[in-house]
Amino acid sequence: MPHESTPPPTELDRALAEAERLIARIQQHPRWRTPAPTLEARQNRFYAKLRATHAVAESRARLARLAEGFELGACSAEEAVRASYVILSHLARLWLELEQPTPKTTEAERP
Predict the structure, then answer these.
(1) How many domains does the chain have?
(2) Residues 66-74: contacts with CB under 8 Å, at least 24 apart
């Protein structure tokens, strides 16, 4: 029986994998576990997490549609990679927002 080797990852595979790593980092961000000392801080964190959860879900759906479209031949590899980098840049922006303390963030709330 011949041994089948897996093909090397493509640029699209690498972009999709990077998006999944970034999604995991967003979901595991310390901001979600840090105690919030005031009601306003808890509300701000709740809405920030809600926004992040929505953005992650939307990005995952877009990535799935993109991968499916590529598999079905609806777009070229170059178009798929370009689109995946757009999604990745949205996720990166979200990550950077999480890393930057908001003006109302107290020292105790910072990750």
Answers:
(1) 1
(2) 67/12, 67/16, 70/12
pTM over 0.85? The answer is: no
Residue span of the structural domain in which 69 resides: 19-25+38-103
- pLDDT in 10s for each residue of the chain, 111 residues: 444 455 566 888 999 999 999 999 999 999 998 888 999 989 999 999 999 999 999 999 999 999 999 899 999 888 999 999 999 999 999 999 988 876 555 555 454
Closest alpha carbon to 87 in 26, 10, 8, 9: 26
Residue at 30 is within a domain: no
